[in-house]
Amino acid sequence: MSAAIKGTQGGLGTELYRGAQAYYDEVNLRGGVHGRAITVAALDDNYEPNPCIRNTIQLLEKEQVFALSNYVGTPTLTRALPVIKRYAEQQVVLVGNFTGAQPQREAPYADQVFNIRASYRQEMMALVERFWSLGARSFGVYYQIDAYGRSGTDGVARGLALHGARITAEATYPRQAKFTDDMTPAVQALQKAGVDVVLCTGAYQGCGAFVRSARDAGFMAPISNVSFVGSDAMLKLLVQHGKTNGRDYTRALVNSQVVPSYDDLSLPGVAEYRTLMERHNPAVPEALRDPNYGVQRVSFISLEGFVNAKVLVEALRRAGPQPTRGSFRQALESLRNFDLGIGAALTFGPEKHQGLDSVYFTRVEGERWVPIADWAAAVQA
């Protein structure tokens, strides 16, 4: 695993690791898979491409890992894909990544990557559809100026094209931006354009900074984010800031997710996730710990990591007591209507390397993300 585990976006890799590890800890406690324990070699890439490339080579050459899993981020993974491609003959695959970008879903890389989550294109097109049905016609975008940001913005453009419309205005921010950064210029650009809604593609600090700057400027249009943002980390920053100046920064805030709510205990997979997170309370290795980051008891990200781990373990079980990378790949492609306990079954196949397509919508209520039942109320400032 190569991910942002320290630094401004460290919460993303930390929570993905913890969710997966909760499941691996339980599996190992019960004797492992065919008597073998699962060990995760985790390396920090600080959400930057070059360290991710170096980490990938280290994992495959020095650590000699069996498979890659739980990579975090588009700017990192897209640059690591050509490296992973070099190991195609050795049957190296990547299972489950925390990015909904297109490159790993398309030739020449899709063959080695098993995407579990829905794509950013699916998330953004679903958000466009919802806001369009509510009457929005002028769409603004705010995005991280890199491959990830462009990927989400492409989804907005495609969604609007179905209605014969185009993006009205764009604003960007640099990767590694902090919550305390002033995003007023971006806010003013979109406010001046008179957009009805802002669709964001970014990470929790940069997007949280935009929400804060927008509301402080009196710009109250609905703001949405895709799943990668780190919803719970962003909410924590906005709530804490709101308490310092007596303002509510969580109104008209809509986030799409690719896993169901971690509060929906009617789903057996979610109940299992909650139980195992509490039982094992996994921590990232000491050397990777960021002292400035406080872990979240539960989150959408750790639930996604948990789901990824369940898929990987099931494939290992099916690959038999002496798994090879080849038999592991075949086992993954044999997963049909695999019940993860989250209300949506996963299916892979030789020509289908994306397992889930569900997109969920959430809003903030009582300092928590909840599924949207009433859209009119959700977008009211």
Whole-number tally of structural domains: 2
Strand content: 5-15%
**So what's the oligomer here?**
single chain
Percent helix, as a range, is 40-55%
Gyration radius, rounded: 20 Å
Describe the biggest sheet?
Answer: 7 strands, mixed
Alpha plus pi helix count:
12
- Provide the succession of SSEs: EHEHEHEEHEHEHEHEHEHHHEEH
CATH class of the largest domain reads Alpha Beta
Give the termini separation. Answer: 40 Å
Q: SS-based structural class?
A: alpha/beta
The side-by-side strand order for the widest beta sheet comes to 7-6-8-9-10-11-12
* CATH topology-level name of the largest domain: Rossmann fold
CATH architecture of the largest domain: 3-Layer(aba) Sandwich
Which residues form runs of ≥5 with pLDDT under 50? Answer: none
Please identify which CATH superfamily of the largest domain we are dealing with. Response regulator
Number of strands: 12
Mean pLDDT: 98
- Anisotropy-based shape: globular
